[in-house]
Specification:
With 264 residues, the chain is an alpha+beta fold. It contains eight helices and twelve strands. Strands 1, 2, 7 and 8 form a four-stranded mixed beta sheet that branches. β7 (110-115) and β8 form a beta hairpin. It is flat, with a radius of gyration of 22 Å.
């Protein structure tokens, strides 16, 4: 259950995009709200790899690679080849048409923080978000100091996201228990000016599902994956990996289209 607070508070830890997270408080934020603005996704410009929930795999797999990272095997949507560069975010602060925008981005500037002392989730906002202003078009609180309809909708979205996040943890645990993960590498072979191929360059190293291990599963385990829905999400992940080629082609195309400096 998420709550808002009536006093000040601080939360610690690093969360992608959230530079100044604060527990949403009627005392501190009653006059604030979100203003409508062009380019609402500018904050995501540096997000080249975005956390993803498992139920998003079927939508995200057509955008780019879905990979797993770290000991916890957190699933990420790759949206750029280099840190700090989301290749699908246009200069106007909007994503290119047809690009899937992960729920992690869409919930911003809201986020949950776990209050271990109170045993509950606290709704927070990123106070540094440029579209949080006094007298915003969508106020956080109504005249009586209660969460506005807009805020209630955001709380519900965050609640739903938390449910999906926990479901994702369960999905990852299934893959761990079956020992389906392997370390994968994405490489790029450049073409030299004379038409010859250059040395392969490593783009990324990550965890993914091993097709060999998947194919070697006992029939009953394979059927179990099919029946609980995990198999379909595994195939979405595997098919998404061709997206590395798309990112490489996009980066190469943009590099070739940049004006070349005149020779001195």
């Amino acid at each position: 259950m998420a709550t808002t607070q009536t006093g000040s508070g601080q939360i610690s830890g690093n969360v992608l995009f959230y530079n100044k997270p604060e527990p949403l408080s009627v005392d501190l934020h009653k006059a604030l709200g979100v203003k409508r603005m062009d380019g609402p996704f500018n904050f995501a410009r540096e997000g080249h790899a975005i956390p993803l929930t498992v139920t998003e795999f079927s939508l995200a797999c057509v955008t780019g690679p879905i990979i797993f990272v770290g000991d916890e095997k957190i699933p990420l949507q790759v949206m750029g080849l280099n840190p700090g560069n989301n290749m699908f975010l246009q200069a106007n602060g909007l994503f290119e048409p047809g690009i899937y925008v992960p729920a992690y981005i869409r919930r911003y500037p809201f986020v949950f923080a776990n209050d271990a002392n109170a045993g509950q989730m606290i709704l927070c906002i990123d106070r540094s978000a440029e579209f949080i202003v006094e007298g915003g078009d969508m106020a956080f609180f109504d005249a009586e100091g209660k969460p506005s309809e807009y805020t209630q909708g955001c709380i519900q979205f965050c609640n739903d996201y938390e449910v999906e996040r926990q479901r994702t943890q369960g999905f990852v645990q299934i893959l761990k228990d079956l020992d389906l993960f392997e370390l994968k590498t994405s490489t790029f072979v450049p073409t030299n000016a004379d038409g010859t191929t250059g040395e392969p360059q490593k783009i990324a190293e990550y965890f993914g599902v091993s097709e060999t291990k998947l194919g070697a599963l006992p029939v009953e385990k394979y059927i179990e994956l099919r029946d609980n829905g995990a198999l379909a999400q595994i195939y979405c992940h595997l098919s998404s990996l061709v997206g590395w080629d798309r990112l490489i082609a996009l980066a190469t195309s943009r590099q070739n289209s940049e004006p070349q400096a005149a020779n001195a």
